[in-house]
Amino acid sequence: MLLVVGGMIGLGKTSVSKALGEHFGSEVFYESVEDNKILPLFYTATEKEIQEKRYPFLLQLWFLDTRFKSIKQALVNDNNVLDRSIYEDWYFARKNMELGRISELEMEIYENLADNMMEELKELPKKSPDLMIYLKGSFETVIERIRKRGRDYELDEALVEYYRCLWKDYDNWVMNHYDASEVYTIDMDVTDIVNNEEDKLRVLKEVEEKLKKLRES
Description:
By secondary structure, the protein is an alpha/beta fold. Helix content is 58%, strand content 12%.
């Protein structure tokens, strides 16, 4: 079993991944945040610094590298959960290119590297995840939860439009472009697995049922 947990920044991927890992007795590969030297620079840089230092491109390379390492381990050793996966990286890179933060040449280099990595995954015994758990929510919920978790570098009001740009096309990407596995969607506007035990048990039960159906099909 390999589960990937995806969705917009702030909606609770780490909490959902932790709950799934505890429930299924599986290892969880968490998103690399605390040891990521580029992430605070990415969020706090001025537009001039972004253009000069190329932080968005460097950040995407950082995530591509760390997520490639994680998914290789997860696909070799069965029974794992990934807190965001390499499959979503392209979406973030693309949105940053649309915003002019990543150049077309940088995007070409990024895509060539990502394509090579995906080809390598095809050589592994397990080729892809069994299920993506997609966390969906309104923009208001996204902003509220980003503020609640209180990472200083994420709280600048100037970032709100960046978050909106990411959020507005996320559903479309998952439903029309992601094809590595089936998708189970959780509405985070009405789900709080951290503070509501009933919500947590419901989500775990529904994931179990979805996996059972996939095994039987």
